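COMPLEX REQUEST
Ligand: pyridoxal-5'-phosphate
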Amino acid sequence: MSTELKYHFASDNTSGVCPEAWQALEEANQGYQPSYGADSITAEACETFRCFFETDCDVYFVFNGTAANSLALATLCRSYNSIITAHEAHVETDECGAPEFFSHGSKILLARSPLGKLDPADVERIATSRNDLHFPKPRALSISQSTELGTVYRPGEIAGLGALAKQHGLAIHMDGARFFNALAGLNTSPADITWRAGVDVLCCGGTKLGMAVTEAVVFFNKDLSQDFQYRCKQAGQLSSKMRFISAQWLRMLTNDTWKKHASSANVLARRLSDALGHLPGVQILYPVDANAVFAKLPEKIKTGLKERGWVFYSFIGGGSRLMCSWRTTEADVDAFVADATVFA
Ligand SMILES: *Cc1c(COP(=O)(O)O)cnc(C)c1O
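STATUS: Structure written out below.
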């Protein structure tokens, strides 16, 4: 008998499209509309972003996070520049060199990052280590919010990095593939953890939140976004039927729909971590600030769960990574924990 594979916790992109985004797609499917973002839904979605962030930002929609990050970083850097980021950063480990490719050679420099968060002292060490022309000139700081280890920077931590970046002439890029999970876990405004803290450009994640194929690139520093639309087009990231992307964003940013889904994922991650943490031999590796649980599982639990069909990854962060999404239910969590308990 073959066991059915269960991808519930493998990633927050194994879930489908949430009902609200699906409904927005359906509603946008009316008649004819101008293409390439010239439609009224796109204008309204961009305006909604400006209200959400309480500032006059420039917004562009692309299809995925790798494109968002690498095109944004390419905008901040010239080919001889460097980007300071964390060891675990997605731009370093999971984008197949796209930031280097699109920037035509900007070098990524890795700073210490306990619990996945950049250590300001080490950022400063790298930023000031050399100023001769043989070293790639530091120009950008890339911060992931939430981090790849499921932790969340507090507003003061981002503001601290922002001040440091300003002092050393670094622009700030925020990889927000899970920005809404971070935001839902903090008692703060979107503005306070972005532009008010010094962030120049945010890659705002839609897909993992529950939307179909979209991330928004939000420029708070509008000087930097001058020719961004050309970059998107050249990279094959300009959607001709843009209204289907913008309609989803419009819906998700309305009535706190983003918050409903992000909070639900976060709460269930905590439920999962609390329950797993009680099993003998299981160690929860990092604070569960958002929708990720990293657990060091005894080998027999790990193999037992895999035998029962649960799929999850164990190559990040020194343990097994379990992700929750908008679709995760209490029953999913309890079923996973029950199976883990059998092998504990
Ligand atoms: C998922 C993810 C991305 C985006 O990945 P794509 O597969 O290119 O959409 C970017 N950054 C982080 C931290 C991620 O987890």
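REMARKS: The first helix runs from residue 19 to 28. The CA atoms of residues 10 and 68 lie 23 Å apart.
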